[in-house]
Write a structure and sequence with these properties.
The complex is a heterodimer of chains A (291) and B (381). Chain A has 3 domains: 143 residues, Rossmann fold; 37 residues, no CATH class; 91 residues. Chain A contains 15 helices and 9 strands. Helix content of chain B is 47%, strand content 9%. By secondary structure, chain B is of the alpha/beta class. Chain B has a 6-stranded mixed beta sheet, sandwiched between helices. In chain B, strands 1-2 form a two-stranded antiparallel sheet. Chain B has 3 domains: 90 residues, no CATH class; 35 residues, no CATH class; 169 residues, Rossmann fold (3-Layer(aba) Sandwich), CATH 3.40.50.410. Classes of the chains: A alpha/beta (291), B alpha/beta (381). Chains A and B meet through helix 2, helix 5, helix 6, helix 9 and strand 9 of A and helix 2, helix 3 and helix 9 of B.
């Protein structure tokens, strides 16, 4: 991947339609070896970027899903307490000093590696580390990440600092449910992923459903684009578009009418209020935009 | 109009890149030395020599949020545009004016259309950090429409920081909660591996209820909008906030606070509060509160915040009695009075005088800084 267009081609092979800007940013990520923060609404393919990147580079993908209450024990490392207790018991009769005992049970054998530590200690080549939905984690957790993201190292009090032999390619995603700290942002390259425009979304649909009639897919995508303009509670993402198009294919609606639309609307809109509103405003009208 | 540098003025690309970083920094983007270095390294990468890719790459380095991206585009166009000065610099602080269109409801609350003389007495046309500093100290009632959006932004940011500090943390404990294995094993080594001392980790005790009573009578007009936002901010971080509006009668607004966005909340509230900006009967409203809600909500551990100027048209005796009643049921009664921020203010109005003996903390709430001072009192709510 020596320039942006080769990245685009590479991603294209794996079914991801990359726009030029994101390709440039990815190129930069690879060359500056800085983490990349992808922000944007849900369902625009942020996580998929990391997946495809790992495939394209033929390397391991290590994923950390963030959630509220995520702590160091679940994200970085944990000691294997059972094993430690057992080992202490086994050493009871031995003549070892306390310091020796301590250094023994806090050795690498007793360390359980969690995603972040795994990413640092990868031996063969740089893995792709995906830290997904970082906005869900507590603010305190962001602070843990700072060391990792800037110096690519992790400090374990009992063992010292572990430095990465191969710097992982870090991709962070955020749905922006809260603002991330400036400290974290400053360590990353930033890219805002928005909903795709008509031509790009069309290419995505055709990429995933190549057998689908061109005119039909264009009509459907146009409907989605119109819906996105409305004031919905939950705006449909690309995943929803694909689901919906798939649903219509399954319903064998080659020329969808209002009835088909009503039946499959649940694939596209994920809130009762939204469905209600769209139905009230007239499905026929919605179909008309695609003509 | 300020004269902005242009890339043609510089002899080499690194110089131009550095100058651009400086420009970005001066215009409020978060561009420090690190970003500057990254930009220089980026400029050396062969495949990014193409103009468009260069722009994209620079953007990824210099921006930290969607809003900043818009601002970046303008700056980029000035600096790297083909013709110097081709683009007039009229869109400088673009992101200050079009972030969110005000809803009519919030405009009403802010007292728009009631232009008053003397609004411009405070220093204007200050930019950057000074501007922020000044706004924090400006009385809410003297904030102009243009500034109010910026103030809201700052307020939300600061309130968020404040609530972050107030947030619960895991705390070591020896009596409750799940075992803290790490600590147990550490200590068991000194006893030959037998875990004799047990350590636990426990959550800090749950926060107690916070009850907020906001005066929305005419005399509070200029303040109530900001104070309402403050309540909304509290709602996000305190699990149990009960909020009421009062003027001539009392309305419970707790359920509306949970609406997903602020604009919706404000719309609902303004529709609901038909007595907005009317007279004040503080005593009678507090009586309603005591009769209907106090028993359920106040348990001796709660904190009550009253946001009012104390300009009461009812009987001071009633007010005195009712405030005392509230006091008896709470751990702490905080009265925030925007008028207190005025120089030479004395709580001499009948209502305020009557209420004061029962109040634990009497503070002003006329500007952002004064509200932030509340933090220390909320710490042990």
């Amino acid at each position: 991947m020596t320039n942006t267009s080769s990245i685009q081609q590479e991603f294209d092979q794996f079914g991801y339609v990359l726009d030029e800007e994101l390709a440039t940013v990815l190129f930069l990520t690879l060359h500056l070896q800085k983490p990349l923060l992808l922000e944007g609404p849900p369902g625009v393919g942020k996580t998929e970027v990391a997946n495809v990147l790992a495939q394209a580079l033929d390397t391991q993908l290590i994923r950390l899903q963030c959630y509220e209450g995520l702590d160091v024990n679940a994200a970085v490392y944990e000691w294997n307490y059972q094993k430690q207790l057992l080992s202490i018991k086994l050493q009871e009769g031995s003549q070892k000093s306390e310091a020796e005992k301590e250094s023994h049970i806090f050795g690498e054998d007793f360390l359980l590696q969690r995603p972040l530590l795994r990413a640092i200690t990868a031996t063969e080549k740089s893995p792709v580390l995906l830290i997904d939905e970082i906005d869900r984690a507590d603010e305190e957790f962001e602070a843990f990440l700072l060391e990792l993201l800037s110096a690519f190292q992790i400090s374990i009090p009992e063992m010292g600092t572990i430095k990465a032999t191969h710097k992982p390619l870090v991709i962070l995603t955020s749905n922006r449910t809260r603002e991330l700290s400036d400290a974290l942002k400053r360590r990353c390259l930033y890219h805002w992923v928005s909903y795709p425009d008509l031509p790009r979304e069309l290419r995505i649909v055709q990429k995933h459903l190549p057998q689908l009639d061109k005119q039909l897919s264009e009509n459907l995508v146009r409907i989605v684009q119109v819906l996105r303009e409305r004031k919905l509670n939950k705006v449909p993402g690309i995943a929803e578009t694909l689901d919906w198009v798939n649903a219509l294919v399954a319903l064998q609606a080659t020329n969808p009418n209002a009835d088909d639309l009503a039946r499959s609307l649940g694939c596209l809109l994920k809130s009762a209020d939204d469905i209600e509103m769209v139905k009230a405003s007239g499905l026929e009208e919605l179909l008309a935009v695609s003509e | 109009m300020a004269d902005y540098p242009h890339f043609t003025q510089f002899e080499s690309l690194p110089e131009a890149v550095t100058a651009f970083c400086q420009l970005a920094r001066e215009n409020g983007l978060n561009v420090g030395l690190q970003e500057n270095m990254d930009a220089l390294r980026m400029a050396q990468l062969e495949p990014l020599n193409d103009r468009i890719a260069f722009g994209y790459a620079l953007k990824a380095i210099c921006c930290c949020s969607e809003e900043e991206r818009a601002q970046f585009d303008t700056l980029y166009e000035w600096f790297w545009g083909w013709e110097k000065g081709a683009l007039k610099a009229k869109t400088v602080f673009k992101n200050q004016s079009n972030i969110q269109k005000k809803t009519p409801a919030s405009l009403v609350m802010m007292g728009v259309g009631q232009q008053q003389a003397g609004q411009e007495e405070e220093a204007r046309n200050v930019s950057g950090a000074n501007r922020v500093e000044r706004l924090r100290k400006t009385d809410f009632s003297k904030i102009e429409e243009m500034d109010s959006e910026l103030l809201e932004e700052i307020a939300l940011k600061l309130w968020k920081q404040m609530s972050l500090r107030l947030k619960r943390k895991m705390k070591a404990s020896t009596t409750k909660g799940p075992l803290n294995l790490r600590q147990i094993i550490r200590y068991s080594i000194s006893t030959g591996g037998d875990p004799i001392r047990l350590f636990r980790k426990n959550k800090k005790p749950r926060k107690q209820r916070l009850i907020v009573l906001l005066d929305v009578s005419g005399s509070m007009d200029k303040y109530s909008f900001f104070l309402l936002r403050f309540i909304c901010a509290l709602r996000v971080h305190f699990e149990k906030v009960e909020a009421f509006l009062f003027s001539t009668n009392l309305i419970r607004i707790t359920e509306y606070l949970s609406a997903s966005n602020l604009a919706t909340t404000l719309n609902i509230l303004s529709a609901k509060a038909d007595n907005w900006s009317s007279g004040t009967k503080i005593g009678a409203c507090f009586r309603d509160f005591n009769e209907e809600h106090a028993k359920r909500m106040l348990n001796g551990q709660s904190t009550v915040i009253i946001l009012s100027d104390g300009l009461d048209t009812g009987e001071p005796e009633v007010l005195y009695e009712e405030v005392q009643k509230i006091r008896r049921r709470t751990k702490r009664l905080i009265w925030l009075n925007p008028l207190k921020g005025m120089r030479g203010y004395e709580p001499t109005q009948r209502g305020m005088k009557a209420a004061l003996p029962a109040v634990d903390i009497f503070k002003s709430a006329h500007n952002l800084d004064s509200i932030l001072e509340l933090e220390k009192f909320l710490l042990d709510v």
